[in-house]
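User: I've been going back and forth on whether these two constructs are worth ordering. Before I decide, could you fold them both?

Assistant: Sure. I'll take them in the order you sent them. The first construct and its structure tokens:
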Amino acid sequence: MTLAHGIYMAAGIGILMAAVLPPVVRRRPLSLPMVFALAGAVVALLPLGVPVVDPVRDRVWVEHVTEVCVIVSLMGAGLAIDRPFGWRAWAGAWRFLGLALPLTIAAMGMLGWWLMGWPPAVALLLAAALAPTDPVLAAEVRVGEPTSGEDEEDEEEVRFTLTSEAGLNDGLALPFVLAAVALASAAGDGWSAGWIGHWLLADVLLRAAVGLIAGVAVGRLLGWLFFRSRHVRLSRQMEGFTALGATFSAYGIAELVHGYGFLAVFVTACTIRAAERSHGYHQVLHGFSEQIERLLTAVLLFLLGGYLVADGFSVLSPQGAFLGIALLVVIRPLAGAAAQLGFPSTRRERAVTALFGIRGIGSLFYLAYALGEGSFAGYADELWAVAAFTVLASVLLHGAAGAPVIRRLDQGKARIP
């Protein structure tokens, strides 16, 4: 059996499971990602001779499939948000982006450097790759499908903050990944500050601004085509596949003009949503994006579980496992708590928002991308083992806790008169 045959099998099983399982796991301490990952692990353990994807050897394939999965999920997340864009309305997201994200990267980088004995660039790379939360695996704690959007207060704060944070930090973590690449190029296994000025100007300010502008421009053009154009009003046809056209156009254009494509896709989705907030076409676009996202997630998590059982756990050190667990149960909760100091929400809401920083497909993309851009070859296997273990641990921990915790949170709100 070849690797291609194994991928076909994983795709087929994943697609069938994605169709069969949602009613089974609903309202249970389970999630679809959990089932996919565990199924991949079980299949790899059986004496079937199923080939396993090696993310080091198959880096290019992994990079592009995870890339597509993330941008499709970003489009779906942006279309689902009912709340109009604004500084006050999105205050929770700004706090997590401005405080929790850099605090997480700093803490993870220092711990990786001290605990693993890695060079600063390698520690920074893992920290940056694992820092963003993930819109792909956060189904239990993110906002649902688009609604009329008539009342921005209808959108529950915990779900909104986690969704908007995940939508934006997938793009805003990339500058820190590029910082690790620049540091490795400038100093190798040591430290240098000579790259910081160019990085701040080109990779932080310029590329983020270009991505934002590209996202708004593409979103406004598509919003006009969808809802305003007299002759080509695409919302009349109610075709869901145009969501892929919007996703790929926004991402490709932003990357071609050297902007951040992830940021552009999410901004494009939010701009399309704002063009005609109450139109039912948003539900069609969101539904199609969610189906594609679910299928890609099924395949990737199945393969991730197989990789960890076949190869990843043999490379993973106790220190690496501790590093991943520390991120999930110590670093993210503390960074999330710090970001919410003074935020007008209940203690329970702040705790849930801080705890549910789900790691997932975006981290796998960033790692695959950086290993193709920088000089990290000697650490590739260990980096993949730690990153994949952290994603699996997040899938299991947050997947088991997501539905019960959110249900209790909703019940507590229902009891408040």
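The second construct, handled the same way:
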Amino acid sequence: MTGEGPTVSETLAEARRRFIEAGIADPVTDARLLVAGLLKFSSTEMLSRGDERLAEEKVALIKVAVKRRLAHEPVHRILGEREFYGLPLSLSEGTLEPRPDTEILVDTILPFLRGLAKTEGHLHILDVGTGTGAICLALLSECPEASAIGSDVSADALSTAKSNAERNGLGERFEVVQSSWFQNISGTFHAIVSNPPYIASNVIANLAPEVTKFDPAAALDGGPDGLDAYKAIAKDAARFMRPDGVIGLEIGYDQRNDVTAVFEAAGFQCVGSAKDYGQNDRVLVFALNA
């Protein structure tokens, strides 16, 4: 590791300076995450090993990564992985980068699953549009009595999700199905979860380049009103639910009333909700009307 190049601290300071000059939104955090991730250093090691000099190949690696970040590629895309609910997850071109707000969906659904586990024993979960597998794998890691299917239209996403399941020791309880919504799904589920595309088509071009350039469009575009995915899920979900099952959904900050109306019209009632860290509506939970 050690060489004749700049120290770890000097390298970090240079990355931070370049990010600040370029107007990167959170330059301090991004510089620390990027350099630490590339060096495989913990936060503590970034401090305790700050005076170590870096070998030439490490300096070159970091320079390339800094250049990629200056071109708006997100830090975790550069590193190739991101932690979600304590699980390290690999990213790929066909997957949305999981965000901390999505962990709130896991938090919100877990009490329902734990309640069902007391009476049902084995639980079966469906994650519609699974991407990296983040939501589903987090639920499996917290519910040893559960198994799950992750569905997605993207073969790349399904390969990534399956790899993430195996990486985290969850492969035996997780299978993938290539499907548009419920097209190729069979069986019934105690929980159906999804972080579907919910951004209105005409808004996408105005999003940050970190999103528009690097997140797959299919995982963002929710149609003219942002509700296409919710309408598709609500239309058929009842056929795939256990009588006491629930549907947990991430929603856009201004979609609570519209999404609730879509599901109520399809015979569901809202039985839970949660706000994100910015106090915006972020999660809705539905059950079939009795």
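Notes on the second construct follow. DSSP finds eleven helices and eleven strands in the chain. The chain has a mean pLDDT of 96.
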